[in-house]
Specification:
Shape: rod-shaped
Helix content: 40-55%
Strand order of the largest sheet: 1-2
Order of helices and strands: HEEEEH
Number of domains: 2
Structural class: alpha+beta
Bound molecules: zinc ion
Number of helices: 2
Radius of gyration: 25 Å
Largest sheet: 2 strands, antiparallel
Length: 76
């Protein structure tokens, strides 16, 4: 019974150590997908000429729009 308890403590310690290690490695070297302030690929809405990140744009048949409303307005 004592052996199982010791084993459990070791398993928990290794788990905590590994998750801490992964966290510190991640915060140091892992590339964030879009860090704030980093240049992003911008697109222009043909209806209102608003510039917005490509990831946020609504894709239509004839271009990218700032909203579904403007996509419908332009494409019918
Ligand atoms: Zn628009």
């Amino acid at each position: 019974m004592k052996f199982i308890l010791v084993l459990l403590v070791i398993v928990i310690a290794v788990f905590v150590w590994r998750s801490n290690r992964r966290y510190s490695l991640g915060s140091r070297s892992a590339a964030r997908p879009t860090p704030p302030g980093a240049p992003q690929d911008m697109v222009r809405c043909p209806v209102c000429a608003l510039h917005l990140p490509r990831a946020d744009a609504r894709v239509g048949r004839r271009g990218r729009y700032c909203s579904d409303e403007h996509r419908q307005q332009a494409e019918g």
